[in-house]
Amino acid sequence: MADAQRTHRVVVVGAGIAGLTSALLLAARGLDVTLVEKAAAPGGKMRRVLVDGAPIDAGPTVFTMRWVFDQIFAAAGAKVEDHLKLQPLGVLARHAWRGHEPRLDLFADIRRSAEAIGEFSGPQEAQRFLGFCRQARQLYDHLEGPYIRSERPTLGSMVGDLGPRGLMALMQIGPFSNLWRSLSRHFRDPRLQQLFARYATYCGASPWMAPATLMLVAQVELDGVWAVEGGMHAVAQAFAALAEARGVKLRFGCACEQVLVRDGRAVGVRLADGEQISADSVVFNGDVNALAQGLLGDPARRATAAVAPARRSLSALTWLVNARTSGFPLVRHNVFFDEDYASEFDDIFRQRRLPRRGTVYVCAQDRTDEGTGSDAPERLLCLVNAPADGDRRPFDVSETEPCEQRSLALMRECGLSIEWSPQTHRLVTPADFERLFPATGGALYGPATHGWMSSFHRASSTSRLPGLYLAGGSVHPGPGVPMAAMSGRLAAETLMAHLDSTSRSRRVVISGGMSTRSATTGGMA
Question: Which residues constitute the signal peptide according to the record (predicted)?
Fold first, then answer.
């Protein structure tokens, strides 16, 4: 089999974190790997944009689940710390509410968070918070193996993997309940319900439709949040450099126009310039809807089911800013809440319009825990959730300008002033995201995680087309940098398993995970 592996040719389409992970791991196992990417640099959604001369991360901003990256680098014979400089954050996020003077910080140290919540909402809410964290950790411990480290589960496999204790833990949270309802049983202060309900948006979902299991995000953050020197784009650069060192042929500026199919099997790709690259296997790291809509050729349509527009996750309006700020002590991650949280998601998912009372997230990319800035301009990513209708309407100034003014007003009422001008910021709309990532409507998280069955509806790493494997945020186990990286690892492991076996039904489970957490993790419950 070793000789077969050396001659097995793989083309990976897309240099997002999932594609980079697949290419790196397959090359480390001895396969002949070529990675093609239409952009001029790696990263996919982890892209960097220049604003008034400053490079700003324009996509994901949070580095969590470090064990995922430690294991990927170890499998390639490397160490994360030799390629990335990471700084653990003590302050996970700073939160403010319109019309309420107190701010609330959450910390990597659970005891500090409990003390802060006690001062903010009272000692009973602090105790409820500790109970919430205990349940979140228990849930994470039971779901990590059967969900995060395994190829897409079925209902039967999930029940078997969980076992009696896991099923009991799942039943305790009410698995058929939504996140908002579950949080209302944990907290009495509506501001705390709003704060923790925001975990649903990490998967592009509404708290009123997302499953209660998403409370496990609390444990993910308690395990550690890091700032990356050079920004999140530096993660993509490090993966690309290591992949190239392990033998991957990187082809940037090469758009894939078609997945080639012969005798019912994927056999390579054709690039936009007409070049054809033959392969024994293809890994597609892009939104699965691009395949289903025929954007990679009619023969590849059958590889996966289409995602209906109603099932799309959140998109966003983002403002990439390089400007001076004053008034509010920004830290790395900041959240500004408006009143009437339910109206935000009703506007987006039911009315299909920009929210009238939208939450504003601000990543201050030059700050860490100290929260101190200088008089110089600083780099900010400001984000408001939006409907994924970028293929249906242009999101022109008549629609975006009122949202922009409402967002600025909310931040001002919470104390933050930004020297806002046409020269200091750049707007990105759902229509822009659709152009960057076709067939999504601008959805940033693949299908929305709505309903308790959503875990079983995402595409698997094994497509319906033999020889074609799937990776990325629209594929199991879901969106976010570590989860997308895990999808790339699952695609690579599934491909290797198929090389070792004639059966395509073998389900891949990756070892390690929670049990291998190191001293690099943050405070734990």
Answer: none
Verdict on whether the full-model pTM lies above 0.70: yes
The rounded percent of the chain whose pLDDT value lies above 90 is 81
CATH of the domain at 274: 3.50.50.60
- Does residue 280 sit in helix, strand or coil? coil
Q: Per-residue DSSP letters for 185-227?
A: HH-SSHHHHHHHHGGGGGGT--TTTSBGGGGGHHHHHHT-EEE
Burial 501-517 (b: 16+ CB within 10 A, else e): eeeeeeebebeebbeeb
In a domain, 100, yes or no: no
CB 139 within 8 A of CB 173: yes
Interstrand relation of 9-13 and 281-285 (parallel, antiparallel or unpaired): parallel
pLDDT in tens, 330-386: 999 999 999 999 999 999 999 999 999 999 999 999 998 877 666 889 999 999 999
Q: Are strands 225-228 and 63-64 parallel, antiparallel or unpaired?
A: antiparallel
Range of the structural domain that residue 273 is part of: 2-46+65-81+230-308+451-509
Residue 61's closest CA among 273, 285, 331, 362? 362
pLDDT at 170: 61
Shared domain check, 129 and 217: yes
Is residue 338 one of the residues assigned to a domain? no
Number of structural domains, the chain? Answer: 2
Are residues 201 and 236 both part of a single domain? no
Each residue's pLDDT tens digit, 454-476: 777 789 999 999 999 999 999 99
Residues 18 and 75 in one domain: yes
Which helix (H) or strand (E) is 21 found in, with range? helix 17-28
Tens digits of residue pLDDT in 50-75: 999 999 999 999 999 999 999 999 99
Considering the domain architecture, whether residues 71 and 123 belong to the same structural domain is answered as: no
In a domain, residue 179? The reply is: yes
User: Are residue 174 and residue 235 in the same domain, yes or no?
Assistant: no
Please give the structure tokens belonging to residue 68. Answer: 């995922």
Which region among 45-49, 89-93, 117-121, 163-167 has the lowest average model confidence (pLDDT)? Answer: 163-167
Cα–Cα distance measured from residue 240 to residue 43, given in angstroms and rounded to the nearest whole number:
9
Let me know if residue 442 belongs to a domain. no
Task: Tell me the Cα Rg of the chain.
Answer: 22
Residue 101, Cβ density class (10 Å: 0-12 exposed, 13-18 middle, ≥19 buried): exposed
